[in-house]
């Protein structure tokens, strides 16, 4: 199964009889061979239908344009589907926004350099210059765009100009600036963020110190899509690590960094392989 | 989605174009509504196709007998499928064989008593009488069939007689007798065993002592289908737990018990929900 | 190392030079042989000192009464220590309070019946009668004390009477009644509770449904000592389990039950082996 | 607690009464303040005693030379102790040997650049030149020493010359050459290796393919000290990751890489913080 000939179809719609048959008939009649299929319904009566489908294209008898048109007309319209098809050959373009912390950025760059990440990293943008060398060592363009209280709007414009046409996915790899509602709406379900998570949750400054003082026994991280409500978007991935009274704030942060980079890298991988459907404020992850 | 109306179809066959379409068309045309589908191919060219499909039967227009016949004739025969269909309403019958260790048995009985296990436990058979009360407290019939070097063949006959018609699944919950090749062949892919697993593996007696002396840092358990080669059948589930130099042989065994009961209970659940396809000496688990 | 001859000393005090020497000299001079020692300081200058020490008593030259007196006079007083000594031979008495959910209760009873729990379970008290048989099958006394809005005070009195002299530890194994401040203060750091934990946290009714709707990817459990602030006492143990969009509320609850019973059983074990020191609102666990 | 003033004492000896007292008295009388202590005995009668002790040196009244001499004469000799003392201020020198795989190397370099690794990386030696840039980007000297069937002895000599005086720890970060018995004996318990681990174990070529064909559900990694018996030295750390039938050999290797780098980095950290005592062919890890 070469990535060169792999396509992926993501569908969600109101559930009802005959959807799998309609989709698989369409693909079969046009020479596509289904190699992986995950389907899930919230409820057969009045629920919602979700499907991820991988198929092979060597014998496909339609151009891409005709495939889109024909699938829309003959299948999607009938079931009022939200759907996307993507071709693994068209590697997604991925931009990374970062501030000073390098752990998540490094994890992404490394996995990418050893071809574990199925994307082209087109740029890294930072409001600090610290990570310029790190990034350029990977032959990735680095843009330093300082942010102040006064220029936030201009900065976003500048970033949007850089991203234009060069970002199918924007990863916030510990980018410590809040994006405006307008920015977020332009990349709906295309911006992934990572943040630490605690049991119980701590509000306010220095959550690691609060976690230490509260004596928590696990700390975690959550990767999610960014919505206009800060840190409240659809959750993609979560994990935790065990800690003890012996951990200092420094240790807690180190452990937190390690869980953050793994949780985010996995979430990014799922997005790039078209394994995620967002529905309402949650995700269906066909991992 | 009521279990009363849920059916599950497991299919494996040589991969080729049109299989998903053929199956889903058949179901659609007979009023079955697919509510979950997992499909996996080892290779689109010359590989093997595996599928698990859940569907709802309220509008099914065929009797069971006709469904079997019709699916075989119109779909399965064409693709030379290995396939089974099962109806959740027909709870599987499950027999448990056990010796003296009660941890796995207890886990199964408990999960069953709180309806987390989707089966009827028809009997517990043991070569010792120790667990009679434990079992009967759950209102499950207990059969004590002592084993000696001389009566092994008779014992197996007696067990087979008890199982006849009352066991769709046989769980070896730490049953310390080796089953004959003949016995195993009668319940192919229907006997699940659990055994401890170590990194590295230890041969010979008292593996926990060997693990202690070797200073291993994890101990694990493997649940697998029983084949004629002891402990070499298709693996269903594995997990490990971390241990340290502070663990005595007693602690190691306690930790081993806890990982064994969880690994086995999960494997049994997957079997009962028809989530497992055996192919060659491995399993496809659509969990 | 027989439990019959094992004693455990837990100490906390302001840190300063010479504490380990003073304690170990005392024990050495009285014939006690230290077999395990864990020590931890928050800060050598102005911090707090915590120590757990296991020693063997066959050659101890003091009666228990003299040991207490002498250690207090010659060591503890000098460093203004909070300290306890306990003898494994004096098995702790453990009472369990439960409502209708049986998963945590069963886990404790089963581990206890296997002798994995180092205590005498003296009673199970419930505000429902459902679990009477379950408990009595283990030859443990069961007391049914119904609770209504009107008799809460009387119920607590009745429970306190039952516990009096028969409970060194009270485990709330999903006991759905809130204990009064007075009750809690009588068993300070001697009542262990378990509750589910979510990332993020959910307030209000039916947190599992909220978790489902929010699409969380892990659910967890927290075992803690009970203080007058509900669910805010010192955390002893936490763990999580991974979940997905496929999990129904029923599945989430089943997974939640499994993590709850393991987290609580481990916390109870640590308490019984004198591995926990409470300091402020957190725990030091020498596990 | 500054690392500048932290010292660590590791002791093993035959168990007997008074050892903790003797050691803690010595330290107390010379102005050392114990801030962490872990002690463990295999058996109080005829067993073996192990202790790790951290102490603060600002008020120490002995020079290092006198500390060594005095501790040996007044304490260690009496109990026939194997012991080492180290000062965190003397950062250990760490050399890395690597072939072509970069995942473990990168993990170490990155943690080191973040100051999560408490050592000076003095060099990276490789039998290939591929990773030269990667290493030099971190300002670490890189030595390329090609190996052929003919020059193995010369290569080892060359490596030993490079290491001489510049390596307190040698990490084999996927170094695919077997070190000679002579080489290993010069760095006893100072060479750490990482290798993949499977349940069950697979012998022969391409274990990942064998694991795929066997359908294993976990793959793992083991970090251990190198002894003359290949991959049989004392185990320091182990972990596993869950895999499924969907994982290709490529995915298995990716998951294997991720578990390898974490398992090794943690093992290296424990070694550098003097948390490991080797006894026979196993380790005591005071983590």
Task: Output the strand order for the largest sheet of chain A.
Answer: 7-6-5-8-9-10-11
Structural class of chain A, please?
alpha/beta
Q: Would you tell me which CATH topology of the largest domain in chain A applies?
A: Rossmann fold
Our measurement of the CA-to-CA distance between the termini of chain A, rounded to an integer number of angstroms, reads 18 Å
Q: Regarding quaternary structure, how should these chains be classified?
A: homotetramer
Number of helices of chain A: 8
Average pLDDT number of chain A: 94
Give me the strand/helix succession of chain A: EHEEHEEHEHEHEHEHEEHEE
- Net shape of chain A: globular
Structure in words:
Four copies of one chain form a homotetramer. Chain A has 287 residues and is an alpha/beta fold. Chain A folds into two domains: 3-87, Alpha-Beta Plaits; 92-285, Rossmann fold, CATH 3.40.50.170. Helices cover 32% and strands 30% of the residues of chain A. Chain A is built from eight helices and 13 strands. Chain A has a seven-stranded mixed β-sheet. The first copy, chain A, has a four-stranded antiparallel β-sheet with strand order 2-3-1-4, covered by helices on one side. In chain A, helix 1 (19-29) packs antiparallel against helix 2 (64-79) and helix 3 (103-113) packs across helix 8 (249-272). The longest helix of chain A has 24 residues, at 249-272. The first copy, chain A, starts with 5 loop residues before the first strand and ends with a strand. The mean pLDDT of chain A is 94. Chains B and C meet through helix 3 and helix 8 of B and helix 3 and helix 8 of C.
């Amino acid at each position: 199964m070469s990535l060169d000939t792999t396509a992926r179809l993501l569908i969600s719609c109101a559930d009802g009889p005959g959807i799998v048959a309609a989709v698989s008939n369409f693909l079969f009649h046009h020479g596509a061979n289904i190699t992986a299929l995950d389907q899930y319904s919230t409820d057969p009566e009045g629920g919602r239908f979700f499907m991820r489908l991988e198929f092979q294209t060597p014998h496909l008898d339609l151009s891409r344009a005709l495939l889109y048109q024909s699938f829309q007309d003959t299948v999607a319209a009938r079931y009022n589907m939200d759907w996307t098809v993507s071709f693994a050959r068209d590697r997604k373009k991925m931009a990374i926004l970062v501030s000073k912390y390098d752990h998540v950025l490094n994890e992404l760059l490394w996995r990418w350099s050893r071809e574990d990440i199925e994307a082209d990293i087109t740029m890294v943008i930072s409001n600090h210059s610290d990570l310029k060398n790190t990034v350029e060592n990977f032959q990735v363009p680095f843009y330093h765009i300082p942010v102040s209280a006064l220029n936030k709007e201009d900065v976003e414009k500048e970033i949007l100009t850089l991203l234009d046409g060069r970002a199918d996915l924007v990863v916030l790899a510990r980018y410590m600036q809040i994006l405006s509602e307008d920015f977020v709406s332009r990349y709906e379900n295309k911006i992934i963020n990572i943040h630490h998570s605690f049991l119980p949750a701590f509000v306010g400054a220095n959550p690691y110190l609060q976690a230490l003082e509260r004596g928590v026994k696990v700390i975690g991280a959550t990767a999610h899509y960014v919505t206009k409500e800060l840190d409240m978007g659809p959750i993609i991935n979560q994990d935790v690590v065990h800690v003890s009274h012996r951990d200092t704030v420094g240790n807690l942060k180190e452990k937190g960094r390690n869980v953050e980079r793994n949780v985010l890298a996995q979430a990014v991988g799922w997005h790039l392989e078209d394994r995620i459907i967002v529905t309402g404020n949650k995700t269906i992850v066909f991992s």
